[in-house]
From TrEMBL:
Phylogenetic lineage: Eukaryota, Viridiplantae, Chlorophyta, core chlorophytes, Trebouxiophyceae
Subcellular location: Mitochondrion inner membrane
One example GO MF annotation: ubiquinone binding
Lineage top rank: taxon: Eukaryota
Organism this protein belongs to: Micractinium conductrix
Main location as per UniProt: mitochondrion
The protein, known as: Succinate dehydrogenase [ubiquinone] cytochrome b small subunit
Membrane topology label: Multi-pass membrane protein
Length: 116
């Protein structure tokens, strides 16, 4: 649990996972936006995107905490980030599997923005 709470300094495995999310996001974002919304590629890309976004954001927010949050309140703020990351994972996974998908939701928002 300590490694998850202090994900920015948890060691080389966490750093490697964080670095790999850059490549995953670079591949999955276009895949989910270009593929048909109800296709198998979009579902796989959306589930991968949900995981990659969660890991990427969790580690990155821990870097922000290390740099900008006063030491005395870092642990409670990090606990909040763990909760936020769990909510993000659940929400994005539900959207990917039970809704229009992450790419589908972005496409819907984009259409509404252009028609406004």
């Amino acid at each position: 649990m300590n490694k998850i709470l202090f994900a920015d300094s948890a060691g080389p495995a966490f750093q490697k996972a964080y670095n790999q999310t850059h490549f995953a996001l670079a591949a999955l974002v276009p895949a989910t936006l270009v593929s048909p919304q109800d296709g198998q590629i979009a579902k796989v890309a959306d589930v991968g995107l949900a995981a990659a976004l969660t890991v990427h954001n969790h580690v990155a927010l821990n870097y922000v905490i290390s740099d900008y949050v006063p030491r005395g309140i870092q642990v409670p703020v990090r606990a909040g980030v763990v909760g936020l990351s769990l909510l993000t994972a659940v929400g994005l996974t539900k959207l990917a599997l039970g809704g229009p998908g992450i790419g589908g939701a972005v496409k819907e928002l984009w259409k509404k923005k252009q028609s406004a």
